[in-house]
Write a structure and sequence with these properties.
Strand content: 15-25%
Radius of gyration: 21 Å
Number of helices: 16
CATH class of the largest domain: Alpha Beta
Order of helices and strands: EHEHEHHEEHHEHEHEHEHEHEHEHEHHH
Structural class: alpha/beta
Largest sheet: 7 strands, parallel
Length: 372
């Protein structure tokens, strides 16, 4: 099987959806799939290094608007598209021209359910893109059962869906490691008690709720800090305003984007991991934190609750009081209780592997090609 995987939407700093695409790029050649990675013209070296067994084609313009136009009207009729058995478009959109069988991954439906979480121009674009992909792809891949159910509700006429839950590297994200050395390398105090948030700083992540909850926590606990790991995203102005006037601003540490080596250590050393997101396609930080045995607090009635099951404390979306209470409970728990949560979290995380995610991609590929 010869597959073209479009990696052109992955930013230089890989997280979330980018992690999923990178894992596919790395894993597919090892599954005896002849893999062509279709990259941006200035981004071929990174993909050669990440997946040396794959072929890399730097076809796509670097600028975002030009990239999307090129994908829609040129890529589908390119020589690469004509030479492969299957095209995998892993980020909602797909070529509008060409006859190569195509699989499209749909990550979440928030462009329909909560347009206020996104830039207006992106909402209009991705609603059209998802509707088009639903009708014209051979098979759709959903990264969670939660998103698959929403797709059925919102776009009832669509191609067959294969669910491929995201995974976690259980060797890298594990409950033990040389955290002291990593903290010293990154000039972090190994003795600090902190609550950790990991994710892009954008409206849907519930950072406004977390900052409000931290005000209550910091009044009860005069040592704990809040550490925020992640890049600023769209709509961060309201967060910046709230952060600027926060009564415990001096105890909030902004780490920015953290590298792959440090992230597991942060999860392990955190007294609690807060992920109060209002909605996601999967919520990868919850899974990564659980794999490290962290005490996770996230939101119920979301995909994160589906991923965590009974291995995390769950609070209502937007409920700062409940979030503060759950985080204080985690902070004040004794060694035996913390150990019990850690074991439960790790066991739950072990249900999600990148190997199984790739297995399901291959199911989708075979289905798209009508291969048994």
């Amino acid at each position: 099987m010869k597959v073209a995987l479009d990696v052109s939407a992955v930013p230089p700093k890989i997280a979330g959806v980018g992690r999923y695409i990178a894992e596919l790029a790395r894993a597919l050649p090892a599954r005896e799939v002849e893999t062509i990675l279709v990259a941006r013209r200035d981004d071929t070296k990174r993909w050669h290094d990440l997946s040396p067994q794959a072929s890399v084609r730097g076809l796509v313009p670097n600028a975002r608007a030009a990239r999307l136009t090129y994908e829609a009207w040129v890529l589908g009729t390119s020589q690469v598209a004509r030479d492969v058995d299957l095209w995998h478009a892993p980020h909602y959109t797909m070529p509008r021209r060409g006859s190569t069988p195509t699989v499209v991954t749909i990550h979440d439906l928030t462009f329909f359910t909560n347009p206020e979480w996104h830039e207006r121009r992106k909402v209009a674009f991705f609603r059209r893109a998802i509707a088009h992909s639903a009708l014209h792809a051979r098979v759709l891949v959903s990264i969670s059962e939660f998103s698959a159910r929403l797709l059925d509700e919102i776009v009832p006429v669509h191609a067959p869906i294969v669910v491929a839950p995201l995974g976690v590297d259980l060797d890298r994200f594990q409950p033990s490691g040389d955290d002291d050395a990593l903290f010293r390398t990154h000039q972090l105090n190994v003795d600090t008690r902190f609550i950790l948030f990991v994710g892009t700083l954008e409206p849907r992540k519930g950072l406004d709720v977390l900052l409000t909850a931290f005000s209550e926590i910091a009044r009860d606990d005069d040592e704990v800090e809040l550490w925020l790991a992640g890049q600023a995203g769209w709509g961060a102005d309201s967060f910046e305003a709230q952060f600027g006037s926060h009564p415990f601003k001096v105890r909030i540490r902004r780490l920015g984007f953290v590298d792959d080596a440090l992230l597991p250590a942060l999860y392990r050393r955190a007294k609690a991991v807060a992920y109060p997101s209002r909605g996601e396609g999967f919520g990868l930080p919850v899974l990564e934190a659980m794999a490290c045995g962290a005490s996770v607090v996230t939101t119920k009635d979301t995909v994160m609750a589906e991923v965590a099951d009974d291995a995390a404390r769950l609070v209502g979306v937007g409920d700062a009081e409940a979030l503060a209470s759950a985080l204080l409970d985690a902070l004040q728990s004794g060694p035996s209780e913390r150990s019990s949560w850690a074991v439960r979290a790790r066991r739950r995380a072990e249900h999600f592997t990148w190997e199984y995610c790739v297995d399901q991609q291959l199911v989708a590929y075979r289905q798209a090609l009508d291969v048994g």
